[in-house]
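JOB MANIFEST
job_type = single_chain_structure
chain_count = 1
residues = 352
[input]
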Amino acid sequence: MRSYHRHRLVVPVLLCALAVLAARPTAAHKEPGGGTGGDSGLSAEVARLYEEAAVATQQYEAGRQEAEKQRARAQRAEELLDGQRRHIAALHEDLGRIARAQYRSSGGLPVAAQLILAEGPDDLMRGQHAFSQTNLAVNNAISKSRRAEARLAADEAKAAAHWQALEKRNTQLAALKADIEQKLETARSQLQGQADASAAAGSCRGAARLDQPETGFTSAWVAPVEAYELSASYGSGGARWSSRHTGQDFAVPIGTPVRAVGTGRVVKVSCGGAFGIEIVLRHAGGYYTQYAHLASVAVDEGEHVEPGQWIGQSGTTGNSTGPHLHFETRITPEMGSSVNPVSWLAARGVSL
């Protein structure tokens, strides 16, 4: 199976990253099915949770990526800290070397004693100079060592604090994502149950209106779903079909918004038979597109649709082995006149 996807230790930097990650999905949570009532309310609930889950997933992924960056920063910081530790060890060694050198040069006598026992002015001046130089070197080494140790402790504390804050934030994001996905799964199950009842009765319940997203499409044609895996290709054979497969199957979860691939008019909304709940659109040039095995429809026959408009939600009604969208392109509204949807959309600038 081939997958496709179509989508649109510096402290200030870390603090800014944590602030950006603090944003959460702002839509208020409702219990599945607790909307305005009926299929429309449940469909809208699934669509809302679908969008919230997408936002939560993006935030979680951003947090995970920031965690990876922080882990890399922590590793670099640890390398720097190791360097500081080696530097401190070298300073300690310098102190020992100075002390040993002083002992050897003075014959074991303290510098002050050498000054007292000096035989003349020149000898005294040399002793005073040696004393000053030795004292300065020792003081400098001690000062450097203390500063390095202080920097080491401060860096370790900062790294630990930022790592803990990031881990806490990632835990919160993971919990939020899991909560939304659980509610979405429950709502999807209820939506599919209603869809199965409609398909079994062969009677559509009417359009479940959805709040349309701001698409901002600049092209006249789009893919029928935003993110997907192709589970069955046009013309493929198998035990599931009496003849060659007449469309392109997009494996997507129940409730995934299904989009009109281009400007057109709804010529058919049906809720029974092998295709389950389906929609057929007529486009310019005498071509038609079919969207089948849906869980709900968001349009009525006769309506005009625009590219990217949500016309329904995916499901697994009819002769379906799992949640997916069956998409066809035809030269008539009915089955038996299909053309390859991949090449048909490719000719219109859409790559599947």
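[summary]
The chain has five helices and eleven strands.
The longest helix spans residues 121-201.
exit_status = 0
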